[in-house]
Amino acid sequence: MSFVVAIDGPAAAGKGTLSRLIAKRYGFHHLDTGLTYRAAAKALIDAGLPLDDEAVAEKTARQVDLSGLDSAVLSAHAIGEAASKIAVMPAVRRALVEAQRAFALKEPGTVLDGRDIGTVVCPDAAVKLYVTASPEVRAKRRYDEIVTGGGTADYTTIFEDVKKRDTRDMGRADSPLRPAEDAHLLDTSEMSIEAAFQAAKTLIDVALNKTI
Ligand code: C5P
């Protein structure tokens, strides 16, 4: 059986960086499940199709190829917004969750990050982490990322977007963002990524020892 690390949390909480560090340290496969929603949303936009037709969106979601997810292309802010709109549709979620569960079986282990990994996609994951940070800190991180990358950004607009995305992700009926009951909470507001990684590593090592 594959060893699954499930990492959930709101946008820009540090899930991505933490997941990549864990995958590298343990030689596990990593899937950023947000990219699957983003890929479906981008395919709809590129084909000039509507974002509010569930049957059309489901068909597009079923065609998403997990091996071809390009985070650079999919990271655009507008694609994230579109992704969170189609992510409220149960048929879209069913299609993508199927593909995510198949990925989670990869040996020797996998790290999946998203919003519903510990609650819906992999409820039996060996380790569940819920990574969070205050909306102010998350907005500032996004802002710094854009400015460091040579772009221009407005902090207040990003802050409002972060809060809007939280409301949509936490408020939807199907698979809302929330910590699984057995998830370990990591608040990265005042924690370095290295400290978060060490905390995660301790939990993973304990779980790995149990499986031997
Ligand atoms: O994490 P990221 O910002 O790339 O995700 C984009 C959107 O995809 C999220 O705002 C969320 O609505 C949706 N998503 C989801 N379930 C996941 C991953 C992402 O609903 N497991």
Write a compact overview of the structure shown.
This protein has 212 residues and is of the alpha/beta class. It has helices at 15-26, 33-46, 54-62, 71-74, 77-86, 90-104, 117-121, 135-148, 155-171, 193-211; strands spanning 3-8, 29-32, 109-114, 127-132, 184-187.
Please describe the topology of this protein:
Elements: E1 3-8, H1 15-26, E2 29-32, H2 33-46, H3 54-62, H4 71-74, H5 77-86, H6 90-104, E3 109-114, H7 117-121, E4 127-132, H8 135-148, H9 155-171, E5 184-187, H10 193-211
Parallel strand pairs: 1-3, 1-4, 2-3, 4-5
Helix pairs in contact: 1-10, 2-3, 2-5, 3-6, 8-9
This protein binds cytidine-5'-monophosphate (C5P).
Structure write-up:
- The chain is of the alpha/beta class and 212 residues long.
- 56% of the residues lie in helices and 12% in strands.
- The protein contains 10 helices and 5 strands.
- Strands 2-3-1-4-5 form a 5-stranded parallel sheet, sandwiched between helices.
- The protein is globular.
- Bound molecules: cytidine-5'-monophosphate (C5P).
- The site of cytidine-5'-monophosphate has 14 residues, from helix 2, helix 5 and helix 9.
